[in-house]
Write a structure and sequence with these properties.
mainly beta
Length: 87
C-alpha cells in the first residue's frame, strides 16, 4: 500500500497530473466534522514529515499522518485504511 506522502509526490512530479486538481482532506480538530480539505494550489511544500499549506502570510504544517484521503478531480486516489487505487 502506498503512503499519502508518496501519492502526493507522484501527483506533484508526474506530468500526467495537474496538482491544482488534487484535493487533500485531513483531521482538523475543531473544524466541522473534525476534517478540513485543501486544494493542491494551497499546498506550498511537501516536506519529508508534513505538507505546508498556506494562503497569504499564514502557513500551516499538516503532518502526513493526519491525512484521511486524497482526491484527484473528485476521484479517490488514496484513503486511510484502503488500498491505493492509483497505479
Amino acid at each position: 500500500m502506498r503512503k499519502s506522502h508518496e501519492i502526493l509526490l507522484r501527483c506533484f512530479h508526474d506530468p500526467a497530473f495537474v496538482f491544482s486538481d488534487v484535493k487533500v482532506c485531513y483531521i482538523d480538530r475543531g473544524a466541522p466534522g473534525n476534517e478540513s480539505c485543501v486544494s493542491g494550489e494551497r499546498i506550498l511544500a511537501l516536506d519529508s514529515q508534513y505538507m505546508e499549506v498556506g494562503e497569504g502570510p499564514e502557513l500551516s504544517p499538516i503532518p502526513y499522518h493526519r491525512i484521511t484521503r486524497i482526491l484527484y478531480r473528485g476521484q479517490a486516489l488514496w484513503e486511510r485504511g484502503v488500498k491505493s487505487r492509483e497505479g
